[in-house]
Amino acid sequence: CQPVPKPESRMEVCDLNPCPPRWKVTPAGPCSSSCGLGLAVQLVTCVQIHQGKEVLQEEHLCPVAEKPLTSVPCVVRTCSYEWSFSKWSECSTSCGNGIQTRQDFCLHSLTREQVNSVFCRRFPKAIVMRGCSSGPCPEQVGTRSPGAELQPATPATHLTTAAAAREERYKNLELPLSAVPQEQTKTGGGEEDTARRCLLCVCGSLFLNATGIINMTGVESNDCSVAIGRPLGEEITLRILESSLNCSAGEVVLFSGRMMWRTGCRKLSLSLINSRTNTLIVKQRVVLPGNGVILQYNSRTATKKYYQDCDKQLFGPQGEIVNPVQLPDQRQEVVCRTFIDVAPQHRITIRALYTDLGTEGNQTHFNYILVRDVSTMKTMVFHGKQQFLWQSTGSQAEIEFHE
């Protein structure tokens, strides 16, 4: 090319459009708790690269659905405190039904010395009162106990017959009787035998029907739990048709969901409960045989969206979880969750078959798997290529996949 004149070398601007705004996250600050589960706050800002410099922008200019969490769970060390209990007291009555109690106190797990109970307030505490029976009173066998509200124990066959009569009363509501959960199978023996089996199997069951009636009266267990589950996008409304709980004896019923928690005893009849999400657990504690509640539940489309498009719901008894989830519009959420709910009498095991969250030098603080035990609200965080085995203490678990 030597004979040809050489043009001058010059640079031309190829694109004047700035890069789109994006989220910027500063490293997380100190953990809010010196032990146990806490939160670390991180600063999330919307920035835009303009001529090689970061320019702060208003948050609405960045994609809202992709905004990172402003706080992340953290654990500095395991707390050194735990609940301890005295032995159960003698039954409060010499015959018939009564109550047993025990004292709770907070211990330092290393020195075993008692400390102020405020140190244990973040940990779940076992029951401190339960029903007991000292056998029938000789002078009152087969009769109602005079004076006191506590009634003599009634044979289980009488309880189931009485509760079966309550079942008959609510058949006119044109709702399926959900005393036998959907996954339970009925075998012959007639309607009366079926009703009796229902009363024995209702505790610890998971109900997946869209509507039904649950009879928790006449059950043999002092503590009885049932769970109701529906697909994501629905919420559960529950009406208490009847309550025979003895409040003065310490009987109570608890309603708990991912976004609500309510307990009560007085004025329960015909009251309404809204789960606000697709799952609800009902826990009943009775002292007197035959007492309990009768519930009618329905499901409907949720009034507010409480989940992300990539969230999943599993009801068991087994399933497979794959992440990331590719949505139909080709986008990916920053944080996707999987909710696992099983029957209250069961527990959950999660085994990581394959994980790859980046190499040690490549991973960030925001690239991890978080597993939460809903009953205790304790969480475990897993990084890198750790293949873990996790087990729950209750019947509910949540998994969060970050980044």
TrEMBL record:
Q: Which GO terms describe its biological process?
A: extracellular matrix organization; proteolysis
Subcellular location(s) of the protein: Secreted
Q: Which UniProt keywords apply?
A: Secreted
- The reply on keyword Translocase is no
The main location class comes to secreted
| Entry-linked Gene3D superfamilies | Spermadhesin, CUB domain (2.60.120.290), Thrombospondin type-1 (TSP1) repeat (2.20.100.10)
- Its GO CC terms? extracellular matrix; extracellular region
Q: Name one GO molecular function term.
A: metalloendopeptidase activity
Keyword Translocase present in the record's keywords: the answer is: no
InterPro entries in the record, alphabetically?
Answer: ADAMTS_ADAMTS-like (IPR050439), Sperma_CUB_dom_sf (IPR035914), TSP1_rpt (IPR000884), TSP1_rpt_sf (IPR036383)
The identity of this protein, by name, is: ATS13 metalloproteinase
Q: What species is given as this protein's source? A: Neodrepanis coruscans
Taxonomic classification: Eukaryota, Metazoa, Chordata, Craniata, Vertebrata
Gene name in the database record:
Adamts13_0
